[in-house]
Design a protein that fits this description.
four-stranded mixed β-sheet, alpha/beta
Amino acid sequence: MKSLSLGKIFGIRLELHWSFVLIGLFVVGMLALIEPALLAPMLMVFFFLFLSVFLHELVHCVVSLQRGIGVQKIILLPIGGVSLTESLPEKAKDEFLIAVSGPAFNFLVVFAVLFLVSVLPLPFPRELLSNPNALNSSEAAAASFLSMPLFTVFWVNLALGTFNLFLPALPLDGGRVFRSLLSFAFGYRKATAITTRISSLIAVLLFVSGFLSGNILLLVIAAFVFFGSKEEEKIVQMKEELKGITLSRVISEKPLVLDSLMNVREAFEKMLEEKKTEAVTEIEPGRFAVLLLEEMPSLVGKKTAPLYKALKETPSLQISESPSKAFERMASAGKRAIPVLDGSTLAGIIDLEKIEMSVMLSRANAMLGEKPPEPKTTPAENPLQPKPEPIPASIIPENPNVKKKKARKPRAKRKDKPLKKQNRK
């Protein structure tokens, strides 16, 4: 299922994940059937949750842009959100600042609400600060959420910030903060491996807890953490292995180039005729889009539209950049192929299959080219120590048990007899 597009802000695409819509509709439908009195308070909670998640991710994006990392889009989830950046932060400090900024905003809102209710006579259940158990009943929670919107803002941001920051699991903010701190001691790749193992364990615990309690949200979070952490580890591993591979090894310099005035149906017919699974077209001067054969079902409704209208620009890669950047762009754009540019001119395309094949070949070459273990150096072979002088044979005592071999006399050379000359008749 695709996310719901909500437009753009600061040039960043904003999308609502299908799980947000699905869980929202499920909860609203169940409450409408079972407890209609809780419907209005829950709608208010969902509204402030949506707003808080949006601002949370927007803060992430602002800090990312300040650190020189571009942002493709924001996907809003019920448990937070995902900011898809053009590349992963390569410095531990950058990742720490970007990850911690979102929860820091949520806690800032919490403290702002507490400050306002402490100096102004605003409606707020102050008794909850000293006795949080007073909110255990659904009736009390519904009354508080409905009659006190400020309390809803407080509760949503407190839950969102706490969950994201203090759960050390990727791809949540807490997992990124934890990894960035480990990176200072172990390096980025090893820190990712450690954090991924911890994330998998947390995902299993969340799944078991959600299954036993019948909590669907915990099951969704468990799946999100488990698969998200594995994908994060794969991206980091591929980035490390692609460092020794040049772009010329993975670029397709002669891709199928389609006219942007060609409609979608004609484009797919051309791809089938040429037996190509990917093609590229220039939708605007210097801006290119990659068309994949597997996108045919999603573009059926636009089969008569020209390509420059039906397709969106695909994030590109400059020919001077590394293949590891290409892998990151593919992951952020959700495409298995992206265009490669030389300035504003098309130089070719790069696809995921060629990248993975190059990585496999590099692994095989590394295995075959492994150096054998070096032999242990004896003291006599150590170049820093002087070699011992040979002991004269006269000093070495004779062993009486060893029989001496008699020296053989050299054979005399045999003299060949001169041949008699035969008289010719």
